[in-house]
Design a protein that fits this description.
- This protein has 327 residues and is α/β, with parallel strands linked by helices.
- It has 12 helices and 9 strands.
- The strands form 2 sheets. A 5-stranded parallel β-sheet has the order 7-6-5-8-9. Strands 2-1-3-4 form a 4-stranded parallel β-sheet, sandwiched between helices.
Length: 327
């Protein structure tokens, strides 16, 4: 099995074999981060550019560390320090970067579809590091690797995803991947924080207790405080009263349940501190595995020969629609 795609734009449509190949490749890179000298020459001479139009701590740092551990040269650009602050378009910025012949471009952008928009127009592999409320594929891949490390399998699981589903690109990538692997997905949250298409993505629950009951995995999402002025919720206190994952709520899940969270976490809002720091929590393992996953993705994409840009889909010519921002 090989990963033959030129870009990593999302996990919708990914096959079971492709997902397992990505996870297996990431697993093979984990030991490099345990060495005294955490560097291999795999991508020596390659150049990776990170183009981040949104604030990011974990994802940006993880990609940079991953690239450097593979000996690639890494350049990070933020919107505040790029010509975007002078009015340059995303496409013009990307074309200028691509003209410098990087071997991969990592893009995080508040507009859903931004990664695919660039992938169809520039001559280097594009990696989606989160585009609006669309997808965040490497986050879902690191979640898969973390689940397999601790549960021992990636099939036949019941996974409850709890919180702000509406704005969550993490949810969409995880739903696509988990369902492709034969898992049951539950979406848990108040009706105002669930998208209209929620029932097509998984089981819908509006009660935390029923949502996590019997679950093998509980994946909590950050409640995006910056959006609460839009009347999605009466108050943070009320949200916490019904949807904060406490030890009592977690007791409804299987005894061996594991808890994930993509971060950053709001302690006491979506997750209690004793759960976030408790024995079931794999939050720090997710962060650790993020480096291995991004090393695998860079290895699979950046090591290939450069070729002409080819649209991933014939109907993807429209500019990305600027939708909800996702933190």
């Amino acid at each position: 099995m090989t990963f033959t795609h030129r870009h990593l734009l999302g996990l919708e449509g990914a096959t079971r074999e492709e997902l397992l190949h990505l996870v297996d490749t990431a697993a093979s890179f984990k030991e490099i981060s345990e060495r005294d000298i955490k560097k291999v020459p795999t991508l020596r001479g390659k150049t990776v550019v990170g183009l981040f139009y949104e604030a990011s701590t974990r994802t940006r740092t993880s990609f940079e560390i991953a690239a450097k551990r593979l000996s690639a040269d890494y350049v990070n650009i933020s919107s505040a320090t790029s010509s975007a602050s002078k009015g340059e378009t995303l496409l013009d910025t990307a074309r200028n970067i691509a003209a410098m012949r990087p071997d991969a471009l990592i893009i995080r952008h508040p507009a859903a579809g931004a990664a695919r928009y660039l992938a169809n127009r520039i001559e280097c592999p594009v990696i989606n590091a989160g585009d609006g409320a669309h997808e965040h594929p490497t986050q879902a891949l690191l979640d898969l690797l973390t689940i397999r490390d601790h549960v021992g399998r990636l099939e036949g699981l019941t996974v409850a995803i709890v919180g702000d589903i509406l704005h969550s690109r993490v949810t969409r990538s995880n739903v696509h991947a988990l369902r492709a692997l034969g898992n049951t997905v539950r979406l848990v949250g108040p009706p105002t924080l669930l998208p209209r298409e929620a029932a097509a993505l998984g089981e819908v629950h509006h009660q935390l207790g029923s949502g996590v009951r019997g679950a093998d995995v509980v994946m909590m999402l950050r409640l995006q405080r910056e959006r609460q002025g839009r009347n999605y919720l009466p108050s943070l206190d009320e949200y916490a009263r019904y949807f904060c994952l406490t030890r009592a709520a977690l007791a409804e899940a299987k005894p061996e349940v594991v808890v994930l969270h993509p971060g950053p976490i709001n302690r006491g809002i979506e997750i209690a501190s004793d759960v976030a720091d408790g024995a079931a929590s794999l939050i720090m393992d997710q962060v650790t595995n993020g480096v291995a996953v991004r090393m695998a993705v860079l290895f699979l994409l950046a090591s290939r020969a450069r070729g002409a840009a080819q649209p991933e889909a014939a109907n993807e010519e429209a500019p990305p629609e600027r939708r909800r921002k996702v933190g």
